[in-house]
Write a sequence for this structure.
């Protein structure tokens, strides 16, 4: 797969998240799979208006793709 396909898949994955979860990823500058793979639960929880429910949503969505928070 080329980079364009990967970017399109990532964007489609991200659009399935709630607005709050998407905004959390934007605020942490998560723009691709590599950024997502480096994400930590603590980094998410440090954001204003991001709680355990939003973190769990992101974790569940990541697990479907074989990714886990550090």
């Amino acid at each position: 797969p080329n980079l364009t396909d990967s970017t399109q898949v990532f964007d489609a994955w991200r659009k399935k998240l709630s607005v709050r979860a998407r905004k959390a990823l934007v605020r942490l500058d998560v723009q691709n799979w590599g950024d997502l793979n480096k994400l930590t639960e603590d980094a998410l929880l440090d954001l204003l208006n991001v709680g355990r429910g939003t973190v769990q949503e992101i974790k569940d969505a990541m697990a479907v793709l074989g990714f886990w928070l550090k």
